[in-house]
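Quick one, tokens below:
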């Protein structure tokens, strides 16, 4: 049986990204792609498990050069999302669903072991909370909360709603990632520090909240922050996924402050180039030396 540092699970997505000048970029994306590259290119033993309709995607091409081991299962449809960005910084966008992947089940996961089970979904229904409890029996659990809040409505639009089962399943989560808006939906609090404290109180062990200016981390004892220093935002898509994957894998080898520094530098560098991170661990360390 193969042993990995991290198993990253989530659907591939046929993305239609339209910027504020109406220029469209089509690519195969999804949290699993940005996370997979960020983890593997940082030197971690990385496995990816994804789902899609086989006629839509050449999965080996998608992950070519990542360094990750790729496992997959067929889905009746491939997830597809249209992202219309309204501002140059890509902070404001409208998302429309053009296809939804079949839900993931624990039984279909590859026969491997991993230190961390990273759930990198895209919409509500990708994962059931019971999956987190099952994964907890085998390793540490990392969850990006986006896939528990972002719902596909009847007309294909996407809207964010609170996670009704949050107090049941947060105690199974070792690493929880939200952005500032998602944290407010979960907690009702606009202050990121207070939101992080409440999510910890509800059971999450280490809480990450991303923002366009910084990344915040709370472990129940101390609030840590690190500034984002990207010189341009051409690679803004995948920001949170890159940050989270960089953090959780770095925590296998170092403390919170160092892991936060690494992942924030990693995402700052990644955002300067479109697509997933294709650099090296040394590139990130050099970036830290120059800008931090």
């Amino acid at each position: 049986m193969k042993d990995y540092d991290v198993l990253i699970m989530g659907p591939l997505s046929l993305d239609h990204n339209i910027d504020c000048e109406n220029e469209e970029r089509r690519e195969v994306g999804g949290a699993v792609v940005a996370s997979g590259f960020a983890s593997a290119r940082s030197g971690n033993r990385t496995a990816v498990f994804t789902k899609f309709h086989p006629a839509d995607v050449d999965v080996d091409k998608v992950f070519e050069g990542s360094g990750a081991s790729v496992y997959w299962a067929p889905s009746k449809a491939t997830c597809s999302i249209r992202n219309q960005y309204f501002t140059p910084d890509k902070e404001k966008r409208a998302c429309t669903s053009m296809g939804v992947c079949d839900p993931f089940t624990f039984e279909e996961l590859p026969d491997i072991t991993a230190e961390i089970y990273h759930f990198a979904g895209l919409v509500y229904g990708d994962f059931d909370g019971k999956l987190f409890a099952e994964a907890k029996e085998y390793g540490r659990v990392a969850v990006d909360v986006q896939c528990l809040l972002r719902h596909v409505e009847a007309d294909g639009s996407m809207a964010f709603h609170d996670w009704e089962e949050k107090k049941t399943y947060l105690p199974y989560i070792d690493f929880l990632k939200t952005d500032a808006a998602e944290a407010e939906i979960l907690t009702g609090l606009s202050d990121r520090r207070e939101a992080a404290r409440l999510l910890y109180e509800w059971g999450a062990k280490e809480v990450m909240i991303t923002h366009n200016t910084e990344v915040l981390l709370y472990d129940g004892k101390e609030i840590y922050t690190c500034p984002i220093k990207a010189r341009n935002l051409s690679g803004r898509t995948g920001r949170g996924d890159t940050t989270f994957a960089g953090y959780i894998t770095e925590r296998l080898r170092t403390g919170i402050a160092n892991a936060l520094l690494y992942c924030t530098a990693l995402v700052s560098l990644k955002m300067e180039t479109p697509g997933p991170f294709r650099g090296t661990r040394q590139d990130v360390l050099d970036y830290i030396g120059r800008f931090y």
